[in-house]
Amino acid sequence: MARPRTTARTVEHPQLSQVSLQQVLEALVDPVRRGVVSQLAKAGEDMSCGRFESPVSLSTLTHHFSVLREAGVIRQYYVGTTKMNTLRSQEMQERFPGLLTAILTASAAEPEPTAT
């Protein structure tokens, strides 16, 4: 039998001042990750991991969330047992002005990602 959790779950996030442009671009080069970012931007609200449409398995999608989080593009937090995702658009705009908007605009002109 599992012991009850005594502390809240937390997720570590980098300060954007510690994130390089290279790291952000490498995170966003993958079409599945760009799809996650696009869905968050279009939703205009935080989304649970299970709400995303993706051509990859949930375990693979979990990896993509981690890459985006480590690059400072998204923030994740728990609501009970549900992991929520939010786009760090304001912080990204301050650190890399116009970058996220340009990538989302260019990405919208491309076909939907396929499983890789």
Structure description:
The protein contains five helices and three strands, in the order H-H-E-H-E-E-H-H. Helices cover 44% and strands 12% of the residues. A hairpin with a 2-residue loop joins strand 2 and strand 3. Helix 2 (31-43) crosses helix 5. It is α+β, with helices and mostly antiparallel strands. The mean pLDDT is 91.
Sheet with the most strands?
Answer: 3 strands, antiparallel
**Measured on Cα atoms, how large is the radius of gyration?**
15 Å
Series of H and E elements: HHEHEEHH
The pLDDT mean sits at 91
Q: Count of helical segments?
A: 5
**Fraction of residues in β-strands:** 5-15%
Indicate the topology.
Layout: H1 21-28, H2 31-43, E1 47-48, H3 58-70, E2 74-79, E3 82-87, H4 89-95, H5 99-108
Antiparallel strand pairs: 1-3, 2-3
Helix pairs in contact: 2-5
Outline of this structure?
With 116 residues, the chain is of the alpha+beta class.
List keywords for this structure.
single chain, 116 residues, alpha+beta, three-stranded antiparallel β-sheet, 44% helix
